[in-house]
Amino acid sequence: MSTSTPDSPQGGGGMTWHVAEDDLRAYVRGELTAPLLWSADTHLAACATCRALLAGVTDPVALDAGWERLDAELDAPRPGWFESLLVRAGIADHTARLLTATPVLRRSWLAAVVFLLLATVGVVHTAGSPTLFLALAPLLPLAGVALSYGPALDPTYEMAVVAPLHGFRLLMIRTLAVLAAGLGLNGLATLALPGYGLRALAWLLPALALTATGLALTPRLGPVLAPSLVGGAWIAVLLAAQAAQERGAGSLAPFTAAGQGVAAAVAALAAGLLFVVRDRFDLFNGSAE
Amino acid sequence: MTTTVTASGLGLRYGGTRALDDVSLRLTPGVTGLLGPNGAGKTTLLRVLATAVPADRGSFTVLGHDPGTSRGRHQVRRSLGYLPQTPGLHPDFSAFEFVDYVAILKELTDRTARHREVRRVLEEVDLGDVRGRRIKKLSGGMRQRVALAAALVGDPGFLVLDEPTVGLDPEQRMRFRELIAGAGEGRTVLLSTHQTEDVAMLCHRVLVMARGRILFAGTPAELTARAAGRVWSSTERAPGAKAGWRTGTGSFRNVGDPPADAELLEPTLEDGYLLTLDDVSAEAAA
């Protein structure tokens, strides 16, 4: 967006570059997008040359609107590193702000998950079996999603419920972000277990099944009980499968081909149920007065 | 005066508790106070009117919109500012970032217009100078003003405030009253509070609630008038008084049914409130 022409004598003292005319025209049309927009905003505040050029390519009304916008932009605080990262990744700035307010996307949460996964991978290497990792990995996205929405951890939950933004939309935005982070970390942990091949990925479908089921049951059971019950059911299934394995049943059932098929079916059914009950996320789900 | 919010026969049960019992009301522009003891159903009523919780029975409209339908609920929410009893604020956000976040929840997605609106409401609550400061570094009164600013985003026609002055010192409370009075100009404000002084100073109408029911609806003067002839002074606590306490002058101020020769005192709104609650308790006991 910049030119390397030297600064003009009439202004822009100290500037080593100027906003390209095409970008200025896009700027006045309101079509310049972040981060070019932010760069132009900041530059125009300090460069008289570019301001003069800007006045030449626009009408006065549009120019006034532009100055108002510039004023608002310079007044706004700089977004944090995580929010900036999301915007640079192409996420709209308002969606990035919604994600920044998601409790489990904070550094402390992500650090805890990384620590837990590293410890688990260590145990897997020591014990010579991936079972613990496969059992734990589906629970992390379930917990992350459960804790990203609801009165327990979201301090603005009550305000969010009565806001015009559809509760299900907010839930889905956060769920996708948490799933992306959670599944991504699980995936990285899987790479640390190369000796088990595709078997080490057998957590993925159970993770999706548990997360979708936990969300689908939340409107009826609440944001704490629903994921707790689903997590407990997963542990019960694993214990039952282990007992069967000790009786000579071979691999743990959830991680066999049949078990993976069941997990996929449960995930699909729960996703369907979640869609059916989507309007229930528009109402308060907490204790009474 | 134009009625902006109407409710008819609202009822809601939580388990075995009747949180709202046949509540009907009409609100007009200006500040209406909602008084009641703990557990009276005030927060439940506010949550129902704010569309957070659906009522089991009855209906209501806000600015002509019926929240009984998905579309109507959306319209009500676009006209609503809500300050809950314990407004959660992201402590690591700055005041600007937090209000900006709420503005996004209110569907203001255009960055320039949104930031303009955020600046406007922060100026309105006198926080323009500290808009970049982290919320965790703000005082309790300032945090409450941040929450009020968030409620004011979008210039809502109906503002619901649930005990916004709790925990504030007298100076902060006075400052907050000024803000609420300003917010009540041209819009309908429903203010739940335990502070009868808030109602006396701010409200053009008052509702008294207990056990899920509206016991009184009228002007503060009418509520005060309920205690006319029922407040008296004595040298000892009067045995038949509903309430009585020694004042700074050493004499007792009694509220209830005075004896024939009692030295009557000018009633306050608090006297009227206490007697309204007591009359209902007596009816329930009978």
Automatic annotation (TrEMBL), chain A:
Keyword match GTP-binding: no
TM helices/strands, residue ranges: 109-126, 132-150, 171-194, 200-217, 224-245, 257-277
Keywords: Membrane, Transcription, Transcription regulation, Transmembrane, Transmembrane helix
Keyword Plastid: no
Protein name: Uncharacterized protein
TrEMBL record, chain B:
Domain ABC transporter: 5-236
Alphabetized Gene3D superfamilies for the sequence: P-loop containing nucleotide triphosphate hydrolases (3.40.50.300)
Claim: Nucleotide-binding is one of the keywords in the record: yes
The keyword Transport belongs to this UniProt entry's keyword annotation: yes
Top-level lineage group: Bacteria
Chain segments carrying region Disordered: 238-259
Keyword list, A-Z: ATP-binding, Nucleotide-binding, Transport
Molecular functions (GO terms): ATP binding; ATP hydrolysis activity
Family annotation (InterPro entries): AAA+_ATPase (IPR003593), ABC_transporter-like_ATP-bd (IPR003439), ABC_transporter-like_CS (IPR017871), P-loop_NTPase (IPR027417)
Family, similarity comment: Belongs to the ABC transporter superfamily.
Name of the molecule in the record: ABC transporter ATP-binding protein
Organism, as annotated: Streptomyces griseorubiginosus
